Amino acid sequence: MTRLDELLQQEAFTDADIVRLLGLTEPDDCERLRRTAYDLTTRFIGDKVHYRGIVEFSNRCTLNCRYCGIRRDNRDLERYDLNREQIIESAIWAAENHYGSVCLQAGERRDESFVAFVEDCIREIRAGTVSEHLPEGASITLSLGAQSSETYQRWREAGGEAECMRYLLRMETSNPALFSRLHPHDFAHEKAYASRIRALENLRAAGFQVGTGGMIGLPGQTLSDLCADIRFYQRLDVDMLGMGPYILSRGGDMRDEGMLDPGPLLQLALNMLAVCRLVLRDVNIAAATALQVLAEDGREQGIAHGANILMPNITPRAVRRRYQLYDDKPCIDEEPTDCRACLAGRIQRMGRRVGWNEWGCSRHFHRRMRRPGGTVPVPRREAPSALAGIPIQLGSVRATSVSDLGAPQYRRLQK
Ligand code: SF4
After folding, report:
1. Whole-angstrom Cα distance, residue 364 to residue 240?
2. Atom of ligand 1 nearest to the CA of 183
3. Cα of 246 to ligand 1 centre, how many Å?
4. Atom of ligand 1 nearest to the CA of 70
5. Which residue, among 221, 292, 301, has the nearest Cα to 30 in the 3D structure?
6. What is the mean pLDDT of the chain?
7. What's the pLDDT tens digit per position in 300-324?
8. Cα four-point dihedral sign 372, 373, 378, 383
């Protein structure tokens, strides 16, 4: 047995182990990591992949994250809002097509009319998706940013039982310095690192299954930052993860900082998925649609590396093109029916089955709720890993930053 094989059999990992695994580049090594993550997924989750039909119901946002194509200051974007009927209709379509779960996503707004609108949609979806094959209706994931604890409570209660309500609130990075570079200072009061963590605590207190995640391959990010992200997810005792490769957006404000080339970026993102599975074991992990920007079969590769959730886009095609957080988003010209047929075949080819008519709750959530007290406090972020900032050997490349990985392939995209 090689040292890598021994490492992959471990049940606990040091920061140095995690950094080493994240930085694998030799095809044989990457395949060993992939295989281990896939087998652990089978062991801890099973062989089913669950869908969350995603409805991107508005591209209006009050915030201005520098990496984002629908940020507030992007004036070149035609804004849209789906009305209540369109949202409910999309959710009912998902349920009739045997998706057990839908996801509502939009830009971040905190005004009362928005909060009440979402509350209303949650109630309608829960009631409107009840059927013979889904007797308790569809479960719902919300991805609507940081809100007050009262708002979280209202939305959670609108969904009825706690088990069917999930919330994804991404941190994007657990490194406070990098976080502040991604968000303009004049908006710091609206999207501050500390308030994001508080929002995650409030979600947990409101009873949601809580998910977070980050971007992989950000300019200036290091492998030890990614390791710190995994430690952050561990300390948060997260139920779900939604992570994706950083893809540059022409509507964003980071065009001059470039992005990694697709090959190294895809491998890094897949390594991150696999290592999260090794460390976090029974959490739900989504194969981000952004992986498909890097390779036609990117999402399937995500499934092969330990992901167990897919989020087919069921937003009406007429507005889909206007919800691009990053460039070259796939599937924007397909109808939901196209996505359904195309994805199911792809999943089967990965040796997995679709969990039709099932909520696909996080196993970790169930395990957590069986513990005394059910909920656990979110610990404060510890000091960054002792490895942070130390040059990292990645294959034959010595890198202090993820941006170094692609050198000399690393390119700067021009406006
Ligand atoms: S990432 Fe989210 S909160 Fe930030 S600008 Fe984009 S939609 Fe708004």
Report:
1. 8
2. 4
3. 14
4. 6
5. 301
6. 87
7. 999 999 999 999 999 877 666 666 6
8. negative
pLDDT at 40 over 80: yes
Give residue 106 CA to ligand 1 midpoint distance, Å.
Answer: 8
Give me the residue label for tokens 């009631």.
127
Q: How far is the CA of 274 from the centre of ligand 1 (A)?
A: 27
**Which residues make Cβ contacts (< 8 Å) with residue 391, sequence separation at least 6?**
398, 399, 400
Query: Using alpha carbons only, what angle is made at residue 252 by residues 250 and 258, rounded to the nearest 5 degrees?
Result: 70
The string of DSSP letters for 4-26 reads HHHHHH-SS--HHHHHHHHT--S
Domains, the chain, ordered by start: 3-405 (3.20.20.70)
Residues with CB under 6 A from ligand 1: 61, 63-65, 68, 70-71, 107-108, 145, 325
Helix axes 262-280, 223-236, angle to 10 degrees: 30
Among candidates 171, 172, 178, which has minimal Cα distance to 388?
178
Contact in structure between 181 and 143 (CB atoms under 8 Å): no
SS3 106: strand
pLDDT of the residue at 394 = 38
d(CA 46, CA 353): 10
Q: Distance between CA 222 and CA 18 in Å, rounded?
A: 13
User: Which of 66, 70, 114, 183 has most ligand 1 atoms within 8 Å of its beta carbon, as the pocket-test mutant?
Assistant: 70
Take residue 58 and report the two structure tokens written for it. 């508005």
Contact residues for 240 (Cβ-Cβ < 8 A; gap 6+)? 166, 168, 209, 210, 211, 212, 283, 284, 285, 286, 309, 362
- 181 Cα–ligand 1 center, Å: 15
